[in-house]
Amino acid sequence: MNEIVVLTASYNRADNLQKLYSSLKAQTNKKFEWLIVDDGSTDDTENLISHFIEENQINIKYIYQSNGGKAKALNKGFCQSDYAEIFAVVDSDDYLLPNAIDLIYDNLNRYKNHIDVGAFFFHYKRPDGQTIESRKKKLDEDKILTVYEYNNIFGKHDGCICYFRDAVYEYRYPEYTGEKYVGPTVILMEMSEKYKIVYSPTILGIAEYQEGGLTKSGRKLRLKNPRGMIHYCTLMMSNKSNLITQFKYGVSIWPYSRLAKKSFREILSFVKKPLLLLVTYIPGQLLYFYWKKYM
Q1: pLDDT tens, 35-50?
Q2: Helices 264-271 and 243-259 sit at what angle, rounded to 10 degrees?
Q3: What is the pTM of this model?
Q4: Is the distance from CB of 127 to CB of 19 less than 8 angstroms?
């Protein structure tokens, strides 16, 4: 069995999957499985994947679920391959460089005996060749850090997270009835209690953000999923974040709490930072009225 699973959660992305498929066929190392979790697509995704499977160029597994959001789709994918050592999460609007699987195997062999490493991270670049990274300090070598430590030093970057099997068996995305979105780094923050991440400056692939995708959907999407965002804000308010970040998400938690009909006492029960909640209460209420235009 293949040790690496490329896991793609897809919703109505038939037009994009061809490019990702082509990049997977072009891999110099074919020892992987491509696992697609179709999150209730209503376009031609199923027929397209059937065609890919018939070509028999790479090992493909296709799973369909009713529309429940990316986090639920990834959770389902994590349960599907007991033989996988690594789940490399690659979105439907991204595609990989020809040596990507070789790079993942290199890191698997290098770090598989590090019991405190739960995942490793590779950077993406844009189609114009620019690396997707923040304006903070530049990463120039592998660093083993928690997501909090990395964000505090280097900022938030977009790329490919490759999870070790044991980590995603222990930590999963939270799921909320009636909601379809939680922050994508929630699982990394949850994992920080036990695991660190190997952050690499190496470029693994290209990211093309599509209109209507999660990255482009922005504020409106987050406001439609307030309980998931409360969970995300709570994690960002951890003492592991710097003070500016704690304050920012202390303000942000209030509009989401109002939408989710959560009381001050309820928020305090899991944030446990009364002073921060008091200081951010009025700015948070003002932010709610500002964000109303997105509702």
Answers
A1: 999 999 999 999 999 9
A2: 140
A3: 0.92
A4: no
